[in-house]
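queue> holo job accepted (iron/sulfur cluster)
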Amino acid sequence: MALPPLEHITYGPVRSRRLGISLGVNLLPPGGKVCNMNCAYCQYGWTRGTARYRGQGAGWPTAQAVERAVSDRLMRAAERNEMLDRLTVAGHGEPTLHPEFEDVTTRLCALRNRIAPRLPIAILSNSTTAGWAEVRRGLEMYDERYMKLDAGDPITYARINGAGGPASSVEQVLDGLRGLGAMTIQAMFVSDANGEIDNSTDGAVEDWLRALESVRAERVHIYTLDRPPALGSLRPVPTRRLREIAGHVRAAGMIAEVFAKKK
Ligand code: SF4
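queue> job finished
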């Protein structure tokens, strides 16, 4: 069963091994996933209809509405002395598709500076829009950028991430990531019971490592399925293999952390 879409702009705090205690911010319209990718492992199910493009359709929260909601929630957190490790922009889809992404980010940074100056502000992005000028200016304001890169060759990339959308060839993604500055690459490894999808093979990992080196990634988060995926035949990759992949990343001079499937 796919996760239901989020109903509000703020959510959580969500506890995760990767991000600690994270207060979530959802910039997507309520009621359904909006993403320009269609990952086979997506916890929100398949991307439906035309909910794929920047600013398309109704219901996007305005920059002012986001500012109000996050301000109220941060004030409440301060009053209650809530422990938070970061403010994380993510939500049920790709947050950089918000039509006022740069303005929203400017407002969130100002709020954080005023209400919770020690709270890092992070974003989870699928990386497809990192080369778009306005999105890039927004991305550069975050303290922490978690950028998706699950494959380095076009065939594996298309199979696992569903491709489609305007900026989604793997080369375009790599061009967008180059020069972005410090970032953590997030990579989900999965295989498919039908043998059609597997980004953990030696060949796929070699291409992915070359892609990581070409974008000068410093830190890489390696993980596998922990929630029901869109494609029911997907399987998690064994922890042993995730550790081997992490070993290759370290041998190439990058920091690698493995987040294995919970028991
Ligand atoms: S990028 Fe994220 S939200 Fe979009 S389809 Fe992939 S996993 Fe789902």
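queue> The longest strand covers residues 184-192.
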